[in-house]
Amino acid sequence: MILVTGGTGLVGSHLLLELLVAGKKVRATYRKNSDLNAVRKIFSYTIPAEEVEFLFKQIEWKEASLTDIPALSEAFEGISRVYHAAALVSFRKEDTAALRKTNIEGTANVVNLCIAGGIEKLCYISSIATMGLSIGETAISENFTWHPEKDHSEYAISKHGAEIEVWRASQEGVPVVILNPGIILGPGYWDKGTGQIFSKIYKGLNYHFPKTTGFVGVKDVAKLAVITMESFVQNEQYIVVAENLSFKEVLDKVALEFGKEPPKKELKPWMVYTGWLYQSIASALFGIKKEISRRDNTSLFEHSYYNNKKVMDEFSYKFQPIEEVIAETVIAFNNDKNQSY
C-alpha cells in the first residue's frame, strides 16, 4: 500500500487521483478539521461525476499530523512506498516556529518511520524556494549550492531543513527522490494559496509586481511524482518547472481568460517599503498578513530562472504550457463561482 501525507492539499489531492486512476491502493493522512469534500471537488475537475465517489471511497483516510508520532506510526502500518506532500506554507514572520516544527521536525518523523519500516522508496515534494536565486538570467539547475549566509525566507529555510532529513533517509538505506516544483497552479482551493490569484483577478486586482520565477501545473507535479517513484531512479533531485514567467505575465493571462482587465499599475519598491499597499497585495495573493520581513519585501522584485532540462531529458517529459493550465483552472473556477469559495 502507498501512503500520501497531506492528502487534502492541492498537490496531495491531485496525487491521490493520479495513483487511484492507476489502480494503486492508497492511504492518505489529513489533519483534524481538514475538508475531505475538497478532495472530491478536486477529483470532479478531472473525471466524470459518476467516477468521483467510486475513486474517493478507495482512499483509506487516517487522521495524523506530522508531529503526532503515534498517529503517524499507525498510518505507516502496512505501507511500502511514501509520497510526502504535507507541509506548512507561510510567509508570515510569526509562523517561523510553526514552519520549522511542521516542515523540518515533521519530515524527520516521516523519515524515521520510513527507515524503521524499511520503506521501499520515498518521494518528497519540496520547492524551488530551496534553490536560491539565479545570477542574472542564468537558470538555476539541480547543481545549486545552498548558501546559509544568504537572506533566505523562513519558508525556504524550513524546506531546506526538510530536504536534509530526506537525504538522511537515503543514507540510511531508503531510496529517495526529491521534486522541487515552482509556483503550482491548478484548480481548487480558491480561498488560499495560488487559488487566490484566480479569485482576486475575477473580483478585480489593480496592481501587479515584476517578480519572475518558475511556474508549473499541479497535474505535472502529480504525474512526475508517480513517474519518478515508478522508475529505477533513486537518490536524485529534480526541478519541476514548466515555464519561467513574471507575475505580470501570469496575472495578465488569468485576466485574459476571465475576460477581465489585467492589473495596470506596477507595485513600486517605495510602496512596499512604506507598507501601505504591500499588505493588501501580499495578503490577497499569498496569505501574508503582518510582520513582514525585509526578505519578503524584496522578493517581489527578484528575477529567478530555473532549468528543467534534467527531468525533461531523463523521463522524456513534456510539461503542460502554463497558458493551458490557466485556461483549465479558469473553467473550473467559473463552474464553481456560484458556490461559496
Automatic annotation (TrEMBL):
One of its GO terms (molecular function) is aldehyde dehydrogenase (NAD+) activity. It comes from the Bacteria. Coiled coil: none annotated. Residues 2-236 form the NAD-dependent epimerase/dehydratase domain. GO terms for cellular component: cytoplasm. InterPro entries: Epimerase_deHydtase, NAD(P)-bd_dom_sf, NAD(P)-dependent_oxidoreduct. This is NAD-dependent epimerase/dehydratase family protein. It comes from Antarcticibacterium arcticum.
